Amino acid sequence: MNILGLVVFAIIFGVALRKLGPEGELLINFFNSFNDATMVLVSWIMCKIMETNSVLLFTSLGKYILCCLLGHAIHGLLVLPLIYFFFTRKNPYRFLWGIVTPLATAFGTSSSSATLPLMMKSVEENNGVAKHISRFILPIGATVNMDGAALFQCVAAVFIAQLNQQPLDWVKIITILITATASSVGAAGIPMGGVLTLAIILEAISLPVKDISLILAIDWLVDRFCTIINVEGDAFGAGLLQSYVERSKLQSSEPQLIQVKSEVPLDPLPATPEEGNPLLKSRHGPAGGAAPGEKESVM
Ligand code: ASP
Hints:
Layout: H1 3-20, H2 22-51, H3 54-88, H4 92-98, H5 100-109, H6 112-125, H7 131-144, H8 147-163, H9 170-186, H10 193-204, H11 212-263, E1 280-281, H12 285-288, E2 297-298
Bound molecules: aspartic acid.
C-alpha cells in the first residue's frame, strides 16, 4: 500500500526506460499491452455484473448507502449531541462548531489517525478541553472508539444477508450487534479499516466473506461519513470528561469553604480607630458615647 513509493518508482523507472532508447521500447510496449489486457478483463467483469441482477444490485447498493448515511446523520446530529447535553447541560452544537475543521479533515482523509493532531488542537483551543484530557482521551478514542464503523458494519452485514436471501433471526441479529462492537474496536483508524474487520461479522453469521467486495466498491464514500462519526464521538468523549473534571473540582472546593466557615469563630467587628482615639471626645461625656446620627467633635 505504499502508493507514494510506487508512484515515485514508476516515474523514475519510466525516465530510465526512455533513456535506454530503442532497447527500452520493448518493456514500454509490454506494459502498454498489459494495461490494455487488464482493461479488457475489467470490462468483461463489469458486463458480467450488469447481466446478473444489475438493477437489483445497484438499487440495493443505493439503499445501503442511503441507510448508512441516514444512520450516521442520526447518530452524529442527534444521539451524540443529546448524550453530551444530558451529562453536561451545555450546547452540543456549539461544541460541534468548534471542531468543524477536524470533521472536514476526517471527511477528506477517511482516517481517524490522520485527523488526530488537528482534533487535539481544536478541542483544546476552541472548546476549552484541558491538554492532559485531550491528549489522553483522543488517541485512545482514535484507536478503539469507532461508533461510525460499528454502525456501518451492522448495515453491511444485514445488506449482505438480504442479498443472499438469508433470513436473520434474533440470535443472528444479536450476534451482529456484539461482533460489530468488537470488530469496530479492532478496526484501524485508516481508510477502509472497518471493511477488513467486517469479515469477522460475516464469518460469525455464516455469510459469504467474498461479498465484502461489493461493500469495498462503495466504501470510499461511506467511509468518509463513518470517519466523521468516529472522530466526533472521541471529541464528545473528551468534552464530557472535561466537564466532569470541572464539576468535581467545584464540588471538592465547596466543603472546604463550609469547614472554614464553621470552624473559625466569628470575631466581633474590630473597633474603629475613632473609638480609642484620645483626641476624640464625645459630646455627651466619656460614659455616654455619641447617639446614633450625632457627630463627635475633635478637641
Ligand atoms: N476510516 C475509519 C477511520 O479511520 C475506519 C473505518 O474504516 O471504519 O476511523
